[in-house]
Every structure is written in structure tokens, then in C-alpha cells.
């Protein structure tokens, strides 16, 4: 596909994600309740929120997830996100680098992240159809600490110019894992991962899974906006809700892979619930992008600081001083998520 078409598409993705973000329905995290601890003995100043993803050490479990890159405005966006990541000590992922692999003139829209945050934790990003050579080049481009391989079949299927043949995806992922020198994260982009597919991924050597559940950025809805006519709106509800996907994946492979929860998280309480359900980290994309572009970098920085504070306050009210202890606290699961889990044969 010509790179100028990809540039246009990336601009449209930003445009329509902003339009949809402001009308985003509440995710299903209201189904999850952390049990209050009236006898907490935690000193908030001693709370430790550090975590680990297959050897990648994170000072904080909140990740700025993959968003963009590949055109001038994306360079500005990535630069601002990198400044915030550096100031707050957050890991950050760039958007799909395929466009830069084909057009060296726009590599700087990705490299700016490493230039601004030379000591930070940065994730490269490619599609599941990328070659091993592409994967290695993507990592080298930004001196990445890990590589995201994104799964976006629904988006590609609905996209007029999208890929329609997904044969060989698993073997391709396995080959990349075997040949790159950094940890590999396999991530969905908003439709969730079921426990059966999580099992297959782990069998192929995947050690980090980002579930990318339904509830946040909806790429079927975005592609429908791009279509303008003949939109496939009946498919916009497709996907596994984030809490349900998280429970499924943790239940099946949580002892063999580190899980990142993403997909519509809104605040520090959602982060705490994700971590209590077994995630090792929690990632934000669309919400952070919306705040950055609508209210500015300072507003986003303040929002993230508040989110971290909410996480720590929730931990204190739960009586835990680190994330390992948080994962041992009792959790109540109700509503649609309870029905989903029950129907899937998972004991809670």
C-alpha cells in the first residue's frame, strides 16, 4: 500500500478517535468491586507500585499505549507523550511503524520518542504480518526495550483497503519471537483476547499479552466513519469486554505470561481493579490522546498524576502496600461480567 495512503489513514484515525472518545460509553469495570479493608495499616508513603513484564522493570504499572506516528502532527503528539513519560517515569509504546519502514523520511516521527526520553522504557510496534526483518528494524529504529505485535483483524476486515488474508499469523509471531532480542508483547487493539487464543499464544512462546479489550477505542467504528457510506454499524459491538477478557486470560495463562490490561480504562480505580484481577500493568491510549489534544500536555500530565494517586489511595483502602498484595485481595464480580465468566465455565 502506498505510504501516502497510510499517512492519510493515520490522520483520519486520530480525527475519528477524538470524535468517538467524547461519546465513549462506560466500560464494564463497574461490574468489579474491590473489598474494603477497614483495618488497613498501610503508610501511603511506603506504597510500591513498581512491576515487571518478563524482565522489563517498570516504576509504575501505567503504560502510555500505542497511538500514532508517520506524519507531522504525529511527531508532535509523540514528542509530547514522550515528555510526559519521561517526567512521570512511565513506559510508552509508539504506533505501528510499518509506514516508517517503507518511507524513511518519516522515521523521525517515531525516533523523537527516544530522543526526548533516552533512558525511558519504550515499546516498538508492528503488525502480525510483519517480517522478521521488519521487526528487527522497528526495534532498532527507536532502540526499543520491547516489541508490540498488534492483532487487528476486525479493523483490517472492515477497512476498505485492509488486509483480508490472515493465514500464517501464528507462525509469523513465533518466528519474530525467536529472532528479536527484546521481549515481545502480543496485543489486541480493542476487541479482546479469549482464553483459548491466549493458550495458543503462550504455546507459541508469547510471554507478555496485552488483552486490548472492547470498551475503549473502537476501530470498527472508526473505519465506519472513514467509509461514510455503506458503514457496517451492526459490527460495532463486536469484541470481548475488557474485564471479561482479562479474567479469561489470567485464568488460563496468568501463571505463564504477564498480562497487560487495556481497553477503556478511565481512572486509577480501574487500574487497581485490573491489577487485582491479575494484570501486571494497565495501559491507556484513546483517553490520553483525547486529553492531550483537547486540553493540552499539562492537563494530561495532571490527569495521569491523579490516576496514579487514585491507584495508591485505592491500595491503601484495600490494606496493601504493593501490587503482589493487591492481587491477593478479594474481588466481587457482578453484572454482565459475572454472567460472561459463568457462561465461559470459569469459577470465580
TrEMBL record:
SMART domains from the UniProt entry:
IMPDH
**Which positions, given as ranges, span the membrane?**
none
One example GO MF annotation: isopentenyl-diphosphate delta-isomerase activity
In Swiss-Prot or TrEMBL terms, this protein is called Isopentenyl-diphosphate delta-isomerase
Domain FMN-dependent dehydrogenase, chain residue ranges per copy: 168-329
Name where it's found.
Answer: Cytoplasm
Provide the E.C. number(s) assigned to this enzyme: 5.3.3.2
Xref: SUPFAM superfamilies: FMN-linked oxidoreductases
Please give the biological process terms from Gene Ontology that the record holds.
isoprenoid biosynthetic process
Recorded catalytic activity of this chain's protein: isopentenyl diphosphate = dimethylallyl diphosphate
Cofactor dependency: NADPH; FMN; Mg(2+)
Amino acid at each position: 500500500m502506498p505510504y501516502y495512503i497510510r499517512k492519510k489513514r493515520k490522520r483520519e484515525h486520530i480525527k475519528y478517535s477524538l470524535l468517538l472518545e467524547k461519546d465513549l460509553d462506560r466500560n464494564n469495570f463497574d461490574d468489579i468491586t474491590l473489598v474494603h479493608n477497614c483495618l488497613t495499616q498501610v503508610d501511603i508513603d511506603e506504597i510500591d507500585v513498581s512491576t515487571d513484564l518478563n524482565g522489563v522493570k517498570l516504576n509504575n504499572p501505567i503504560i502510555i499505549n500505542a497511538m500514532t506516528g508517520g506524519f507531522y502532527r504525529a511527531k508532535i503528539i509523540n514528542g509530547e507523550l514522550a515528555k510526559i513519560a519521561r517526567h512521570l517515569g512511565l513506559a510508552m509504546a509508539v504506533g505501528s511503524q510499518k509506514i516508517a519502514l517503507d518511507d524513511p523520511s518519516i522515521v523521525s516521527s517515531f525516533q523523537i520518542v527516544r530522543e526526548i526520553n533516552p533512558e525511558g522504557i519504550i515499546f516498538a510496534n508492528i503488525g502480525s504480518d510483519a517480517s522478521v526483518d521488519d521487526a528487527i528494524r522497528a526495534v532498532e529504529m527507536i532502540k526499543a526495550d520491547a516489541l508490540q505485535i498488534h492483532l487487528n483483524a476486525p479493523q483490517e476486515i472492515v477497512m476498505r483497503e485492509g488486509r483480508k488474508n490472515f493465514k500464517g499469523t501464528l507462525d509469523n509471531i513465533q518466528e519474530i519471537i525467536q529472532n528479536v532480542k527484546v521481549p515481545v508483547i502480543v496485543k489486541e487493539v480493542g476487541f479482546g483476547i479469549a482464553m483459548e487464543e491466549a493458550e495458543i499464544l503462550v504455546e507459541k512462546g508469547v510471554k507478555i499479552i496485552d488483552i486490548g479489550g472492547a470498551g475503549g477505542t473502537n476501530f470498527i467504528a472508526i473505519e465506519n466513519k472513514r467509509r461514510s457510506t455503506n458503514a457496517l454499524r451492526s459490527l460495532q459491538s463486536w469484541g470481548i469486554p475488557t474485564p471479561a477478557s482479562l479474567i479469561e486470560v489470567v485464568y488460563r495463562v496468568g501463571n505463564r505470561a504477564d498480562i497487560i490490561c487495556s481497553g477503556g480504562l478511565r481512572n486509577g480505580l480501574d487500574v487497581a481493579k485490573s491489577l487485582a484481577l491479575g494484570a501486571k500493568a494497565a495501559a491507556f491510549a484513546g483517553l490520553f490522546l483525547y486529553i492531550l489534544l483537547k486540553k493540552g500536555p499539562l492537563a494530561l500530565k495532571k490527569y495521569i498524576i491523579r490516576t496514579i494517586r487514585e491507584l495508591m489511595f485505592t491500595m491503601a483502602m484495600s490494606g496493601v502496600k504493593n501490587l503482589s498484595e493487591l492481587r491477593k485481595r478479594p474481588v466481587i464480580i457482578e453484572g454482565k461480567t459475572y454472567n460472561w465468566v459463568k457462561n465461559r465455565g470459569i469459577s470465580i
